[in-house]
Amino acid sequence: MLSDRIDELFSDQLAGWELAGINYRNLSMVRTKRLSFGGFEVLVQFNPARITSSSAKVDDSSVKQRPCFLCADNRPKEQKGIPFGDDLIILVNPFPIFRRHLTIPSCSHSDQKISDSFGKMLLLAQAMPSFTVFYNGPQSGASAPDHLHFQAGNIGFMPVEMDFTGGKHARLVSSVPGLEIWKWEGYLRGIITLRGNDGEKLAGVFGKLFESLSHRQPERPEPMMNILSGYSSDEWTIHIFPRKQHRPRQFFSSGDDRLLISPAAVDLGGVLITPREEDYEKITGEDVIDIFSQVCFNDNEIEALVSEII
After folding, report:
1. Burial zone of 226 (CB within 10 Å; 0-12 exposed, 13-18 middle, 19+ buried)
2. How high is the pLDDT of residue 233?
3. Does residue 61 lie in a domain region?
4. Strand 271-274 and strand 40-46: pairing?
5. Whose CA is closest to 98, among 13, 33, 27?
6. Spatial distance between the Cα atoms of 101 and 96, rounded to a whole number of angstroms
7. For residue 156, is it within any domain?
8. What pLDDT was estimated at residue 167?
9. I need a labelling partner for 45 at 20 to 30 A (CA). Which of 90, 96, 262, 269 fits?
10. Measured at the alpha carbon of residue 7, what is the angle toward residues 195 and 137, in degrees to the nearest 5?
11. Which domain CATH number covers 28?
């Protein structure tokens, strides 16, 4: 089974790859604090190993000047993988956020685009039910916008997963056999959630959502978004975070309000990663509200988007 092979991969890599072994052991020293917001929490994690990803230069010029670290010829010689499907390989991420953190790149060098790869994400989630599979768009937190890839982490780590189950902030707005559409309210981040066991219907609604977002952001390589996908009880749950901005103004500030935070799927899932201790110490609930308001759709914008797709 794939789960057994992934277990073996982690055992092998953490024992035989010094960098990975050290960084996974250091997860025990990662510090976490909780910020409360009217019935839900956002976790803030101090994780210095994530500095490279959080501060990555992803403009076209910078990307073209560096070798692609997801291509097989450029990956560390110690890094092993498990082939998946026709064109993906499952790798241990050596700079973890999760206790089990995977990177799953395409074997071919092609741009980070979800429009033709949504089905691959569904298959991955179905094959790895103990993981949440996630996608960061090329201008939404992906540190390799030039190479198609997904990531995955052990389920239950991000608060959004339990908050959806709790049902306080997500409201069902459409239901047909095999497909439900939910929208979130009062959660600081606008989210649309798809749930169901019919992969074709899920892909169809996602296609409509993608098209609506594309009309709003025609100048971008693809509309800005992050996606979390899980599979349990024979159905998928897919959380989609449409976005308006890549990084908040605090990321670029040279003043006292500087926060080196570059939100991606995990951050929007409720675990904000701070690679600098000073940011971890000073970030407040007001900062989180401000950052989410800059990068995410608000409730009214989500309402308009949902109206277009149902």
Report:
1. buried
2. 94
3. no
4. parallel
5. 27
6. 6
7. yes
8. 84
9. 90
10. 45
11. 3.30.428.70
Q: At what angle do helices 118-127 and 199-216 cross, to 10 degrees?
A: 140
Helices and strands (H and E) in the chain: how many? 12, 13
- How many other CB atoms are found less than 10 A from the CB of residue 107? 17
Please give the structure tokens belonging to residue 145.
């916008």
* Rg of the chain, C-alpha, whole Å: 18
Residue 71 in any domain: the answer is no
Assigned domain for 60 exists:
no
CA torsion, points 289, 290, 296, 299, in degrees to nearest 10? 60
Residue type, 4: D
Its domain, for residue 16, covers: 2-55+79-262+274-309
For residue 29, give both structure tokens: 């020293």
**Residue 279, number of CB atoms within 10 A of its CB:** 20
The whole-model pTM stands at 0.95
Task: Count up the domains in the chain and report the number.
Answer: 1
Nearest alpha carbon to residue 58 among 97, 101, 95, 111: 111
Question: Which tens digit of pLDDT belongs to each residue from 96-142?
Answer: 999 999 999 999 999 999 998 999 999 999 999 999 999 999 989 88
Under a CB-based contact definition with an 8 Å cutoff, are residues 74 and 66 in contact?
no
